Amino acid sequence: MALFSQTSLHGFQALLWKCRMLSPISGCPQLFAVSFSIPSREKFNCFSFMTSSSAALPVGPKGAGVVPSKKRSEIDYEEKAWDKKAKEVSEGKPHSSSSVTAPKKELLTHALLKHQFTSVQPPEKPLQAEEWNRLREGFQSPEVFEEVMLNSMVKHNSPIDVAKSLLTYVAKSYGDIEYKLLVKYLVLCVQQRQASEILDVHDIMKGRFKILESGAYSLIIRGLSNSDQWRMALTILEEVKKITIPSRTHYESCIKAASRHQEMNLAFELYHEMLANNLVPTLDVLQAFFDFSRGMKGAELQKELFGVLLYLRDNQLYPHKTFMQSIKLWFESIPEGNWRGHLTNIKESGQCPVCNHQLEDSSLTEEEYNNLREKIIRDVIHGTDTFRKTSPQEFEAFQKFVENRLPFDIVIDGLNVSHINAKKMQCENLFNAVNYLAKKNTRLLVLGRKHMLINSSNWKRKIMEEMQTKAHFFFAENISEDDAFLLYATLRSGKHCKFVTRDFLRDHKACLSDSPTRHLFRKWQRGCQIAFSPSAEGKHIHFLPALRYDCVVQTTGDTWHIPYKDFFEEKYSYQVPRKWLCIQQK
Amino acid sequence: MQSANMLLKKIVRSSVLPFAAQHGVKKDLFPLSRTLNLSLCMKQDNSCSPSEKLDLDAWKKVMKSGLQEVNETVSECKEPATLAAARETLEMWRLAGKSVPENITEEQLKTFIECTSKSAQKKYLRYLHLKELHKKNDKRKMEEKRERRLEAQEQASETGVTKKNSFICLWANSMDKVCNWRAAQSMVFGQPLVFDMSFEKDMSLREVTNTVRQIVLSESTNRRSTDPFHIHFCNFKDNSLYHKEFIKHYRGAWDKLLITVTDQCYTEVFPKEKLIYLTADSPKVMKTFDHNKIYIVGSMVDRNIKTGVSLARAKRLGLETAALPLEKYLLWNTGAKNLTLDQMMHILLTLKDTGDWKKALEFVPKRKYCGFVNKPVHELKKTLSLINTLKLGKRQEEVREQFAKNYSKKQT
């Protein structure tokens, strides 16, 4: 199979164009079925295969690309949407999709329901049975007519009576209504907050089926909790409990409903039940607590809400901006509380500029330290097989090496640092970094691999030798992981020791078995990692000092400091927010 | 509870009227439409009369009247409560249109209950569902085939032509014999190929079944080749999962297979210096196929790629390792560089017979590469970037970076 290459994009497109026009081209062994858009015909993008599997489709003698049938049928639908101009082109295209296997068909029907029939317009008024029948007859695939119709009703938010008339038609003609349709009808009712209808459908379902599945339950609960009948949602939650553990969305709706009606005790009861079931509450739920208990009195309630804040602390969660605002407003609304909140940035030293309070230190306790070291040796270095990252002999040699030269102040990931400036030799980069860090009379350890010792264009022996007078070096095998050694050496040296690497150490964090240890690891990493970046002109390296203070929700009793994110979206686990909410009691 | 429901219903019923009234008011907000299609509106007004209103809730009556009939179909309660409950849940999911198999055995139900998370349950059910669909299709196709064959036979009997042939039709049988002779020969003189069966604890049950299926495929490929390997299964424990799966596949033929199965390690069977462990993580790249060496293939499927597991085995035993020169010969596009065991088998057999890398690497899945490297790298770069600019959803930089990584000057 030869690679077909065409120097200019234009020629390539022209060729594709020809192939599409089904003129057989000899000497064209390959056709890349890749999507493209031809400027003159913007509509023409039928080749939009998203998969790479069709990167090269052989062109048969007939000249038609052998398109996977599933895709072809998708194209067929698109074709219907084309305008007439493009239609001329597709004339010669085979329209058979008979070779589609059933699983694909199955998947296809879903796809159909999703995007092909979205253009179906639901009627605006309730129809009589014969009118529905006529519509159904005129529909492309009558067997999914009702489903499609209800789907589009949900989409267009049709009046509920229209859906009722459809259900009546179905019930009259078949004597029964499928569960699927009832659920879709429920969606419509929830959308329009028809509490009474929801209850009716629930009764019917209960009578008709022994149990319901979680999808229907969550719809019913959500629908009811948004209405005046929210207490019914609680009874239904009890029903769910008989069958399975309710999901967090079930709890969420109920908790929100209870908070909305100022039943804080009930809401917190549900919240604790949820935590006991190992469900993770969404930030929405937590925010609801603060929103709805604004201005309410009660020591018990305060304790609970402080508990929520401590939950954020324990799980290293950061509220987003609106949530932070809710917290601030709640604090300020406590009667006779005299709390004041300010938004601020914390100084490098870890001091809050508003209340001059020194934030918690980022260093770990002795116990945590030892615990983390044990876990790292067990999970990260050894893991399932010591040979995966190193070998027992090598690790032992390294341990001996470290014990004999303790303590280090800074441990450097040599290879990582050496790549900082691509224009320079790798050993030069490393040399600059070592020089810069060694100025301050610190004990350095540089970790590398054995290939650094071989004289090559990137690793000049002379420079390497000069470096070795300024720092201790340890060279691991070329197929060993040097990061694991970096962690070990740093942890072994004690609290003051920092390490230098641009790596986020995500893969090592993932090796750790349980989430408390992971949180510990991140905390330690924040406090010990010196990141660096090349300066603008690339002459030297900027080192960013490690964080001195710990970035979690924290309190001293009369002050609270809460870090928050600007947006709701998930940030990376190694990044910490820079903005803080400082709350103090006058 | 019941009485409360009744009360609620009454309230609901009474709230229908104001709702209808509102509806009427809304209609009056659009006098334009009324004038436009007056005749329709007249009908519409009729349909909004209270008698029609009741008609809208007719489906509820139908559903409630159908209750008695439905409740008669009570499932047989032979199973313990948990299983029955699970069965019911599945039935409801199926009705809700999720991917759930229609029929499920007790064993599968137990597996389903033992799933640790909801997503695991979903995946397992989807897998069963697809399996069921495939089975149905196969059945359907078989029946169609049979009908076609019968028709053809009828037509043939009508024409009444019988061909004369000097061979009796025993093809499959005689082919088997030939293959077995060759395999027997390889047992004595053939080059050994080792499958390392020590990865069981690194795999889930599903991965083990996949592994065994791949090995069965490779074994049959090997048997049909002109010059088969002498296959060894080393570190093979009796009554292990592997063993059970093999029995499932081969049934009675397991004991008649012309391969060597041993619980010994390959280092005990062969001299160490002759062994080469094939693994994608190896830093060394295979240049030529050596007929005097013994290659080891780790029989492992890692759906979530476990880097360095087989390399660790080789390191532990101090064996030489090698990786296929995929980067050297193929313009790699996407996907992991670990290949399935049957692909490995095809490649090794082709290398053994011809020594032609290009021919051998035809067996690498086409989706994973864009073509063979037969030009200077910079030209390939152009083509690749062209392909990727044309392709949607591929970010330029990403591709370039990958290319740079693959084809940078190899550092010694």
Task: Describe the protein's architecture and organization.
Chain A is of the alpha/beta class. Chain A has 24 helices and 12 strands. In chain A, helix 17 runs antiparallel to helix 22. With 412 residues, chain B is an alpha/beta fold. Helices cover 58% and strands 8% of the residues of chain B. Chain B has helices spanning 2-28, 31-36, 38-47, 50-56, 58-65, 67-72, 81-95, 106-114, 118-159, 171-189, 205-224, 241-250, 266-269, 309-317, 326-329, 341-354, 357-360, 377-390, 396-407; strands at residues 192-196, 230-234, 260-261, 275-278, 294-298, 320-322, 330-332, 369-372. In chain B, helix 11 packs across helix 12 (241-250), helix 11 packs parallel to helix 16 (341-354) and helix 18 (377-390) packs antiparallel against helix 19 (396-407). The model of chain B is unreliable at 15-54 and 68-77 (pLDDT under 50). At the A-B interface, helix 4, helix 7, helix 8 and helix 9 of A face helix 1, helix 4, helix 5, helix 7 and helix 9 of B.
Secondary structure elements and pairings:
The complex is a heterodimer of chains A (586) and B (412).
Chain A: H1 9-20, E1 30-31, E2 57-58, H2 69-81, H3 84-90, H4 102-116, H5 129-138, H6 145-156, H7 160-174, H8 179-191, H9 195-208, H10 214-225, H11 230-243, H12 248-260, H13 264-276, H14 283-292, H15 299-314, H16 321-333, E3 339-345, H17 366-382, H18 392-405, E4 410-413, H19 414-418, H20 426-438, E5 444-449, H21 461-470, E6 472-476, H22 482-493, E7 498-500, H23 506-511, H24 515-528, E8 529-534, E9 541-544, E10 554-555, E11 559-564, E12 579-585
Parallel strand pairs in A: 4-5, 4-7, 5-6, 7-8
Antiparallel strand pairs in A: 1-2, 3-12, 8-9, 10-11, 11-12
Chain B: H1 2-28, H2 31-36, H3 38-47, H4 50-56, H5 58-65, H6 67-72, H7 81-95, H8 106-114, H9 118-159, H10 171-189, E1 192-196, H11 205-224, E2 230-234, H12 241-250, E3 260-261, H13 266-269, E4 275-278, E5 294-298, H14 309-317, E6 320-322, H15 326-329, E7 330-332, H16 341-354, H17 357-360, E8 369-372, H18 377-390, H19 396-407
Parallel strand pairs in B: 1-2, 1-5, 2-3, 4-5, 4-6
Antiparallel strand pairs in B: 7-8
